[in-house]
Design goal:
Layout lengths: L5 H13 L1 H16 L5 E7 L5 E8 L5 E8 L6 E8 L5 E7 L7 E8 L2 E10 L2 E10 L4 E6 L5 E9 L5 E9 L12 E7 L5 E7 L6 E4 L6 E11 L2 E11 L5 E7 L5 E9 L2 E8 L8 E8 L4 E7 L10 E10 L5 E9 L15 E7 L5 E7 L7 E8 L5 E7 L9 E7 L14
Antiparallel strand pairs: 1-28, 2-3, 3-4, 4-5, 6-7, 7-8, 8-9, 10-11, 11-12, 12-13, 14-15, 15-16, 16-17, 18-19, 19-20, 20-21, 22-23, 23-24, 24-25, 26-27, 27-28
């Protein structure tokens, strides 16, 4: 989520504070039904530096603590380093590690846990260009090894997972002209590669998309599954669709499927289900001309089962409000949980007094058929922006929401926010999805 500039931000905060009361009145009726069953917030902590952070992923470790990865700014304000944050089970900071060299552009995009530490993927710099890279950290966050894939152009690893033989599968892009890692690499070459447990490449295969966004070892159907966003042309115009790619155990593509409507449909995350897959992102194909959070249920052969869109948890004009989703997970009962942000982008601002100019973290919980069970929003218009970037279900069946937050910690700029939601009350839900 890209927040407005500091100057715009200060103006919006002052004006939003004045109108906070009116926001509550506007939205009380709209939110009544969903809030009554939403879990409560247990705690919230912010971690990072005074130079501004952006979180991309996170998870709960086997010992109950939490780990998050993203980027932090360098003092120059022009380049970034990798930031990894580790907390205990209550959100208290245990350690945070900044990885990178001054003047180089490096980011952490994804992270997984292994027996003796963590493997992270992202962009590392070699010969002045960003490259797809892997780093192994020990349990205390110290670097055990680092591997840079010396490909052509700029590139990055966007998603990783463990393989059944203890190796690593990764996806991302190479051959890009862009030094900075974009939301979606439009002019690049996607790839899938496998390494051993120490990051040595076993094989690499190109993908017929500009980037691989996330990859998972397909525990139910074998091989690997990759999600992406592609440009296509239909009805006389260019637009984006979500893409799902299935490969065998050696990265050879067995099928490729596309999903979306006449508008822009972007996919940023996915997860496995008992009998297929779920995709998440945001869409303008829902008909209201604004971005809505987007949930897509896919069968194990790539067939579309259903799709749902969600938005405007705080009310307002849907043409102006962006509801963006970057994380989705399958829940213990076969439903889904989504991490989103909701707010008005600076270029869409019509009324500077509208508190929705300040972004809210937006969590959506659905049953197995995509029907909303509850929604949760964390909105602090008098204090600054928040946006949920990733989410995981915790061991106690509560949820950890990883946020970009202007106010979760005492540091300057935006930081990593760790927001813990309490375990849900007993929910009766249909765990058999409709076909």
């Amino acid at each position: 989520m890209q927040f407005p500039s500091c100057a715009v931000f200060r103006i919006l905060i002052i004006q939003s504070a004045i109108y906070l009361t009116s926001l509550v009145n506007i939205n009380a009726k709209d939110l009544k039904e969903s809030i009554k069953s939403a879990p409560t917030q247990e705690w919230l902590y912010g971690h990072g530096t005074d130079r501004g952070e952006h979180v991309f992923e996170g998870f709960q470790a086997k010992d109950g603590g939490f780990v998050a990865i993203g980027k932090t700014g360098e003092k120059s304000g022009r380049t970034t380093d990798i930031l990894v944050v580790r907390t205990d089970a209550k959100g208290k900071l245990e350690w945070q590690r900044i990885i990178g060299e001054k003047g180089r552009n490096e980011e952490g995009r994804c992270i997984i846990e292994v027996e003796d530490g963590y493997i992270l993927g992202g962009a590392l710099t070699l010969s002045g260009k960003t490259k797809a890279g892997l780093i192994k950290l020990d349990r205390n966050g110290r670097t055990a090894w680092s591997r840079i894939h010396d490909h052509s152009g700029h590139g990055a690893i966007r998603g990783i997972d463990l393989t059944s033989d203890g190796g690593i599968v990764a996806t991302g892009y190479t051959d890009s002209r862009q030094r900075e890692i974009p939301f979606i690499a439009d002019e690049a070459r996607g790839f899938i590669l496998k390494t051993d447990s120490k990051g040595k490449i076993s094989w690499e295969k190109p993908l017929r998309v500009t980037q691989g966004t996330k990859v998972r070892t397909d525990k139910h159907n074998g091989g690997f599954i990759i999600c992406s966003t592609i440009w296509t042309f239909s009805n006389g115009k260019d637009h984006q669709d979500a893409c799902l790619i299935k490969t065998d155990n050696h990265g050879n593509v067995t099928w490729t499927k596309f999903y979306g409507g006449p508008g822009q449909d972007q996919c940023f995350d996915m997860d496995l289900t008992a009998n297929g897959y779920v995709l998440a992102g945001h869409t303008t194909s829902s008909g209201n001309r604004g971005w809505n959070a987007w949930l897509v249920r896919i069968g194990n052969k790539g067939e579309l089962m259903w799709e749902k869109s969600f938005g405007e948890p705080l009310g307002g004009d849907p043409r102006l409000i962006y509801d963006e989703c970057y994380g989705v997970r399958t829940t213990h009962d076969g439903g889904f949980i989504m991490a989103c942000g909701s707010g008005i982008e600076p270029e869409n601002v019509k009324n500077r007094r509208d508190p929705r100019n300040i972004w809210a973290a937006y969590v959506i919980r659905t049953d197995a058929n995509g029907n909303i069970i509850w929604e949760f929003t964390h909105h602090t218009p008098a204090e600054g922006h928040n946006a949920a970037e990733y989410i995981t279900q915790c061991k106690d069946r509560g949820y950890m929401v990883f946020m970009d937050s202007d106010n979760a910690g005492s540091m300057k700029e935006e930081n990593f926010g760790f927001l813990k939601l309490a375990p849900e009350k007993s929910i009766e839900t249909n765990t058999q999805p409709k076909r």
